Amino acid sequence: MSVEIPAGAATAAPRDTVYTASVRVSGGRGGRAESLTGSFRATLTRPAERGPDAPGTDPEELFAAGYAACFDSALAAVGRRERITLGPTEVTASVSLGTTDGGGYAIAVLLAVSAPSCPRADLERAVAAAHLLCPYSNAVRGNTPVTIRVDGQD
């Protein structure tokens, strides 16, 4: 059975696919994840069971890593396109999992963007453009709160 969920008004479906990543998970949040290429393997651990001896990661950390990497790349692309000298950049994504009023779960994202040698106004302009370019930002826009903090040269 195949069910396609149409893109909402705030999102656009890709016109041309340039890459597809496939990861198989067994055991849910307490299981294992492995890419179909075999290049990625991870033990998954529920956050509530995480301790100093608990191996693994969780879906929120994996999403945070993907979002931070993608946003940093989008920021670099904007810098090149707009001729903004960003200097070294760092993006930290914090993904929070919480409950909803309806009894389900939802996430919220905080992106902390740092470019200490970039003038703050230039960095803010680049971050705004990167937020429109980044596929992760586009995927969550309209259904997941994203807060962005910028730390540049004052």
Automatic annotation (TrEMBL):
Region of interest (Disordered), ranges: 27-57
GO biological process, one term: response to oxidative stress
InterPro entries: KH_dom-like_a/b, OHR, OsmC/Ohr_fam, OsmC/Ohrsf
Residue ranges that the Swiss-Prot or TrEMBL entry lists as coiled coil: none
Annotated family: Belongs to the OsmC/Ohr family.
Protein's name in the database: Stress-induced protein
